[in-house]
Amino acid sequence: MTHMYRRKGSGGKRPVLKLVVNNCFPESPKRPLLRKPKNADVRPREYLRPDEVERLIDAAKSVGRYQARDSLLILLLWRHGLRVSEAVDLRWSNIDWDTAHLYVKRRKNGRHSNQPIDGRELRLLRALKRASKGQPWIFMSERGTPLNDDTVRKIVKRAGEVAKFDFPIHPHMLRHACGYALAAKGTDTRTIQDYLGHQNIQHTVRYTELAPGRFDGLWD
Hints:
40% of the residues lie in helices and 9% in strands. It is built from 9 helices and 5 strands, in the order E-E-H-H-H-H-E-E-E-H-H-H-H-H. Strands 3-4-5 form a 3-stranded antiparallel beta sheet, with no helix packed on it. A two-stranded antiparallel ribbon has the order 1-2.
């Protein structure tokens, strides 16, 4: 709507007419903010049991063009409690073939460590290295570059869908799976802390708190 008003003149000056235009269009309704659902709303827990990890590995072996790479990726994420950024940064030079150890360089100011590689991992690593064509990184894309974080997440998510999990799977669940598996074996908290590279032991305690068998025998 347009309003017209007259400003009072002063000093003999001619009054000036001004037009004021009000906004005639109603404000558009605000769209509701789309919030990311909480983890607890989409999955029952943030870790996988060892048998579920094996399901995930088997699923990765059955889908895609890079089955050997993808299944080994999931295995190492689990057995060494790797973050995605740590996994994509792995190089062949991280492996000591003579002693069968993997040098794990932790992120987030974590503690680095040399971790043993078991026979299963070693066989798969050797097979993948033979097909690596001299590339320095262990996990490569089809473009000849290291895998990026997003690709790793898609690989793990797809394996979870093929394995028919009834909740979405993400890579960090495999790091948690490592911690819970070690706690279930009775590994002491300090050792788990060093293995996962935690600076603060409070980040490790959550695994031992939920260890199965922790309260067994209390009522015997």
